[in-house]
Amino acid sequence: MAGIDDVARAAGVSTATVSRALSGRGPVSVATRDRVLAAAERLGYVVSASASSLASGRTRAVGVVVPFLDRWFFSTVLAGISDALVRKGYDITLYSVSADPAERRRVFDDHLRRRRIDAVITIALELDAEESASLSGLDVPIVAIAGPNPLVTTLTVDDLAVGRLATTHLLGLGHRRITHIGADAAIDAGSTVPALRRRGFEQVLAEAGVTDARFEPADFTIEGGSAAAARALAASDAPTALFAASDEMAIGAILAARDRGLRVPHDVSIIGVDGHELGRWFGLTTVDQFARGQGERAAHAVLAELDGAEPARGRGTLPFELVDRGSTAAPAR
């Protein structure tokens, strides 16, 4: 089995240069790095993770904390994080947390501390003061995607603006009877992503003088969106348009409309949020928030801090864009 000395001899450099070239840390010319990489590949040399950790003080692992693993948005963001980290030789240590307080304490107070990691990325988590303090106590770079986390670097889509954009689009087509499928105001208040999208919807209707703001709560799944849409469309004064706070709920709404024999968009317009890959097959108009790109951006942010960049405290705004695929149109006369 080839060792670092064999690679150094084959490349005509010192073992220290091999170490710098393979770790990506320290001054090495492009030509020398290419020569070292070629020699390592030819000899089948693989860097020992434990040796690299001892030498650098790093584990080359990043902890990622998510509330769901079976939702499209989270898995897609995670794929973006993984792509960016793997390219730089980092592994992911994944932690899934629910709303259960005991489980959350185990993750934040035990698991994250017990497993050595170089940085943490959280995805759409609301952290209380104790959890924020626990993360800060790890003394590693921390980047949050969405979630109101004022103590850490946060990358977020302006979800209030997302809600406004989708609603403005429907109003511009002439709709006035619009139902929003998403956050239940009695349960999901404050600055959560669903609540902000709902608030954007409310704001635009109020500004347009539309007092009949309609809501149907749902759980951000296709099934939940379908059930919410079915309730809305069964009303005697059914809406002419539905704004779902996620594409999965919007797809459920399209299926519910079809079950009632309604044509989309002739009988009812439907718009979602996300940029879900299934949206293209359903012809779904959506506000794309480029989920995979969010993950890549977060990974680049922690990698930059690990390479010595100053933490970008505060909030960084992520892009979004209205994509019209034909599921919205002017209401039928």
Give structural notes.
- The chain is an alpha/beta fold and 333 residues long.
- The chain contains 12 helices and 12 strands.
- It has helices at 4-11, 15-23, 30-43, 49-56, 72-87, 101-114, 129-136, 159-172, 193-207, 222-233, 247-259, 291-306; strands at residues 61-66, 91-96, 119-123, 142-145, 153-157, 178-182, 214-217, 241-244, 269-274, 285-288, 315-318, 321-323.
- The strands form 2 sheets. It has a 6-stranded parallel sheet, with helices on both faces. A 6-stranded mixed sheet has the order 7-6-8-9-10-12, with helices on both faces.
- Strand 1, helix 5 (72-87) and strand 2 form a beta-alpha-beta unit.
Brief overview:
The chain is an alpha/beta fold and 333 residues long.
Mean pLDDT: 86
Give, in spatial order, the strands making up the sheet with the most strands: 2-1-3-4-5-11
How many strand elements?
A: 12
Element-level helix/strand string: HHHHEHEHEHEEHEHEHEHEEHEE
Q: Give the N-terminus to C-terminus distance in angstroms.
A: 77 Å
Query: Count the helices. How many?
Result: 12
| Secondary structure category | alpha/beta
Which stretches of 5+ consecutive residues score pLDDT under 50? 49-56
The share of residues in extended strands comes to 15-25%
The radius of gyration over CA amounts to: 24 Å
| Portion of residues within helices | 40-55%
Q: Specify the overall morphology.
A: elongated
How is the main sheet built? 6 strands, parallel
